[in-house]
């Protein structure tokens, strides 16, 4: 593990039980979606799969830390509005004045808080699938341009 591990904000977004048919019967495992961020403009998402929750979380966290993106911030908010469609998920992110807070639904809220954004308004459209919304939010943050 990394020595500065305590600096990262980690949140498990989704835990799925998945099974595979084999000759010997069903092979069950767990799929875990984790969001990791330093609350200073860096955020990553990882998907880990293992037979135990802790192993899956460890794998997902490791992947998320390796594949972090940098989010351009304009003070406590984002520089401009962005609308992204990723699969069935559509996510709209809008900058907000100081003091507004994070107005976002579950999956989007976790990614935005991990990135260190304090004032934002968002809307998820299209699907309620948390994993799809997390990936769409990450793509939206990646498309932001520094103003």
TrEMBL record:
GO terms for molecular function: rRNA binding; structural constituent of ribosome. Keywords: Ribonucleoprotein, Ribosomal protein, RNA-binding, rRNA-binding. It comes from the Bacteria. The keyword rRNA-binding applies. The keyword Ribosomal protein applies. InterPro entries: Ribosomal_Su5_D2-typ_SF, Ribosomal_uS5, Ribosomal_uS5_bac-type, Ribosomal_uS5_C, Ribosomal_uS5_N, Ribsml_uS5_D2-typ_fold_subgr. Transmembrane segments: none annotated. Gene3D superfamilies: 3.30.160.20, 3.30.230.10. GO terms for biological process: translation. This is Small ribosomal subunit protein uS5. NCBIfam families: rpsE_bact. Belongs to the universal ribosomal protein uS5 family. One of its GO terms (cellular component) is small ribosomal subunit. Pfam families: Ribosomal_S5, Ribosomal_S5_C. Residues 8-71 form the S5 DRBM domain. PANTHER family: MITOCHONDRIAL RIBOSOMAL PROTEIN S5.
